[in-house]
Amino acid sequence: MGLIEYKSDCELTGTERSDLQKLLQECFHGYFIDRLYHKQVPQYRVLAKKNERIVGQVAVDQRVIRSRKHGVISLIELIDTCVDEKCRHKGIATKLLQELEHWANEKSVDAFVVFADDHRLYKKLGYDVVDVTCRFLAIEEHESVGVIEKKMGDCFMIKFTRKPRDMQGDHVDMLGYVF
Ligand SMILES: CC(C)(COP(=O)(O)OP(=O)(O)OC[C@H]1O[C@@H](n2cnc3c(N)ncnc32)[C@H](O)[C@@H]1OP(=O)(O)O)[C@@H](O)C(=O)NCCC(=O)NCCS
């Protein structure tokens, strides 16, 4: 694989925007045709490129959350990890996520979080599934529709960067929206 780049959406070129739109639509059934996010524009993206074209991405938001058991936790949330079908199983997604961990190592980040139904990639990278109840801002098509509190089933995955913390059965205020 070639280059890994970090970009916010306002830094994307026209070609990068159209590469990303195509990639997201191909990787996620029913993805939007005219935007690159679900609820809100992410803070930035980590892009994998081959021959100067985007072949993989993970969008990223940094935030703090409040756990009932552990207090305030600073984290990076991963959104829409995806790789072009023709380039899969070559370690590109792993490289993207490891690169992000390396970058975050120097920052004050306590954990990485992803909401995922398929756990395989993240389990390999050391993420744990935890049974938590989340409180978050619900957004529907650019409208805030309330604050929801619900058990996340088995889709909340977390990896602590330093000291691991037991979050089983925890209640977490996401202090914002989730994907
Ligand atoms: C998941 C995905 C990003 C992996 O990309 P990749 O570059 O092939 O990943 P890597 O080569 O680093 O690792 C591959 C491993 O990821 C795991 N994996 C495969 N599909 C996966 C999926 N949909 N979700 C989570 N993990 C997956 C498997 O364990 C796979 O191992 P294998 O190659 O031995 O089969 C890619 O399959 C994809 O874009 N899928 C469609 C979008 C998607 O479902 N994204 C996950 C959103 S949470």
N→C terminal distance = 28 Å
Main CATH class: Alpha Beta
What percent of residues adopt helix (DSSP H or I)?
Answer: 10-25%
Q: Quote the CATH topology.
A: Aminopeptidase
User: Can you write the helix and strand succession as a string?
Assistant: EHEEEHEHEEEEE
Number of domains: 1
Q: Treating each run of at least 4 consecutive H or I residues as one helix, how many helices?
A: 3
Average pLDDT metric: 96
Ligands bound, unique: coenzyme A
Structure description:
The protein has 179 residues and is an alpha+beta fold. It has one domain: Aminopeptidase (3-Layer(aba) Sandwich), CATH 3.40.630.30. Helix content is 18%, strand content 42%. It has helices at 14-27, 92-105, 120-124, and strands spanning 4-7, 44-50, 53-67, 71-83, 111-115, 128-129, 133-140, 143-151, 156-160, 171-177. β2 (44-50) and β3 (53-67) form a beta hairpin. It is globular. The model has no long low-confidence stretch (mean pLDDT 96). Coenzyme A binds next to β4, α2 and α3.
